Amino acid sequence: MKKLVITTVIALMGLAPAMTMASPQEDLKKFRSYYFKKFPGVKLQRYADGIYGINEGRRIEWEAMEEFPPYEPGVEIGKELFEKYNIGKCFKNGGIGIRQNYPWFNKKTGKVHTLEGDIMSCLKKNGVDTKKAKIGFKKGKMAAISAYMGYTSRGKKLNVVVPNDERALKIYNRGKRHFYAKRGQLNMSCADCHMYYAGMMARGNVLSPALGHVTGFPVYRKKWEFKGGGNPALAGFGTIQRRYGGCNKQVRAKPFKAQKAEYTALEYFHTYMSNGIKVNAPSIRQ
Amino acid sequence: MRKIIPFAIAAAFALGACASGGGSSEANKGDASSAITAAEHEKKRAKGKGYEWRDTGKIIKKAKKAMKAGDYDKAVKLANKAKRQSTNALAQYEQQKNAGPNY
After folding, report:
1. Residue A3 lies in a domain
2. B71 Cα to chain A: minimum distance (Å)
3. Residues spanned by the domain of A207
4. Number of domains forming the structure of chain A
5. Could A182 and B99 be called an inter-chain contact, meaning their C-beta atoms sit closer than 8 Å?
6. Which of A162, A236, B11, B94: disulfide with A220, CB 3.0–4.6 Å?
7. At what angle do helices B72-96 and B56-68 cross, to 10 degrees?
8. Angstrom distances, CA of residue A109 to CA of A19, A62, A160, A161, B27
9. Active site residues of A
10. A233 assigned to some structural domain
């Protein structure tokens, strides 16, 4: 009997890590099949459109907005800034059509790079005083540059690589844990809203599916546009990490700083889950 | 009847003063200060785990403001509320540290 108990305990101990340490490929497969069951008939590429991919009524509204896209002047400004600060020279292919490969894992440093993080490094390398130029990580000029780079990548499929490297997997699993862990006074996780309740209403808003979320970022968000601030053409722009902060605040958790380890890990996991979906940045969101 | 009315008014004032505390406080400055210190300590622990709640810092600020204004009861009440939030946040962290998909 004693032996049986010990054997069972050891077997369970062995099983526990195996359950939590599924490979990224296995995660992706299960993540995707969850949405396919939840929204039968919605094709993978449709998830790039957020709620407009799953809600026909809202899609009509969105298509009308897309006839005169409010983000176009901002993308133009982004292009001007991209050229002014000579950003292309820091990136492969002159920074054109590369958004789909972000975030990427740097084997030399063991760190994950985001597009906004690399743009900031480039600006500093090129001698730009980012404080004086008022370039931060979440909105305004940074989001405009990133939106322009995303715009040049439209139609290219997301291709984030999580190599079989302990350091990359550690970051990936940190992001995965953040996605599924409940937090804040409302005790809710990213997955609660964007998986289990996706498609349902939260007040006047339809909750978007997490699958395909990242393809449209930086987004042009109506809420941010109304909030205003700075150049009106850029007011609606925000990066994915700006949105993460907003989501955490909404569940009454203290947000993390943009481009620090926690949100970068989340972006790594979140984007990997949408591999194979075409980039359509910048997108209009509610 | 004439005698009853002033008496009733006086009694009502006295009761009102009792209900509002009349500016007197059961907690003292030391109580408020130690409650705030305890709340700050717990908040630091929650922050260390990356699990601080959004409003905890704001509540501590309000507690400090109440202490400055001499309202020690209010300061203690707010500081205890903030501490409770961080205690719950830490329990939430423990519960969620191995969170995974629910499908």
Report:
1. no
2. 27
3. 18-285
4. 1
5. yes
6. A236
7. 160
8. 29, 42, 17, 16, 55
9. 247
10. yes
In-domain check, residue A5: no
Residue A137 confidence (pLDDT): 97
Q: How far is B21 from chain A (nearest CA, A)?
A: 32
Give residues with Cβ within 8 angstroms of A158, minimum separation 6: A100, A214, A215, A271, A274, A275, A276, A277, A278, A279
Predicted confidence (pLDDT) per residue in A121-165, tens digit: 999 999 999 999 999 999 999 999 999 999 999 999 999 999 999
CATH number, position A170: 1.10.760.10
| Contact between A63 and A57 (Cβ < 8 Å) | no
| pTM (2 d.p.) | 0.87
* A11-20, A89-98, A226-235: range with lowest mean pLDDT: A11-20
Q: State the best of A32, A37, A178, A185 to mutate against chain B, taking most chain B CBs within 10 Å.
A: A185
Complete DSSP assignment for A11-32: HHHHHHHHHH---HHHHHHHHH
B residues 83-102 lying closer than 8 A (beta carbon) to A: 85, 88, 92, 95-102
What span, in angstroms and rounded, lies between the C-alpha atoms of A154 and A75? 13
Decide if B96 and A262 are in contact by the 8 Å CB cutoff.
no
Chain A residue closest to B101 (CA)? A180
ipTM metric: 0.86
Considering only alpha carbons, which residue of chain A is nearest residue B92? A183
Position A6 in a domain: no
